[in-house]
Amino acid sequence: MRSISILALLxxxxxxxxxxxxxxxxxxxxxxxxxxxxxLEACSSIESEVNRSSVRIYNDAACxxxxxxxxxxxMVHEELLSVxxxxxxxxxxxxxxxxxxxxxxxxxxxxxxxxxxRPTRYVASIALAGAxxxxxxxxxxxxxxxxxxxxxxxxxxERATRPAVTLAGRRISAxxxx
Length: 178
What we know:
By secondary structure, the chain is mainly α. It has six helices and two strands, in the order ααααααββ. Strands 1-2 form a two-stranded antiparallel ribbon.
């Protein structure tokens, strides 16, 4: 079932990916969907305040628009097919911004430069699946994944550092024991 879901997702991403809509790209405007390398080129300055030329602003807007559209399509596809949450390829939490998702994709490409020639939809799918897995994991593995995610998206690891509470002389931790 999972392999069928993955195959269907990749097929939809391939068919729905904007290859060419009749607009010609001008110099300095890479086709984000073509490859991970083009994605890195277009999205290289989304967090930088340096050199805010019209080309950079266009690239930033195109990058964030592509990331938002891809992520929404990626998540809606499995929802529409009624794929159970545990069998989904990725589960991006609500509240994760396009900039944070772009960081995840950029980090994946930095860690796997040999994949940069692949289509961006492939790279982004694998990056999201690695950063936001849906499967149940051991507590230790889940904590490690959360620490990595928090370092990428900039949220503090609230649950991982929740202190124990003392109540009526008894120490009570966040984890219940039965």
